[in-house]
Write the structure tokens for this entry.
Amino acid sequence: MLPSFNVLGGDLQSCSVDPLTGWYRDGCCNTDREDRGLHTVCCEVTDEFLEFARSQGNDLISPAPEFNFPGLSAGDRWCVCAQTWQDAAEIGLACPVFLEATHEETLQVVSMELLKENSIEES
């Protein structure tokens, strides 16, 4: 696989290994042409965002053991779909973003300005 870059132009950093996230379930918000949802925004989910995603048909709260998915709670880090994050942001429900772990392909959907407005620093 080719190297992946984040929205800042650097190497893509890991988003979360607990729970294990990513299109490839490798902890990173990598993507490819099969990833129609563009799971590229690394964020710390909030209750409001999770409820919004569920209202849009993307239930990230309920466990799905058949997909090795534990279900998410507020505070978990996860690679979310760029369009879902954008839609949430438009109504004031964007969850905080980790820019170094957000894939550059996100910029096809979300502006850098909006990402920066909602970014949080690594601790």
About this structure: The domain at 1-123 is CATH 3.30.56.110 (Phenylalanyl-tRNA Synthetase; Chain B, domain 1). The chain has three helices and two strands. The beta strands are 39-44, 77-81. The helical segments are 47-55, 82-90, 112-117.
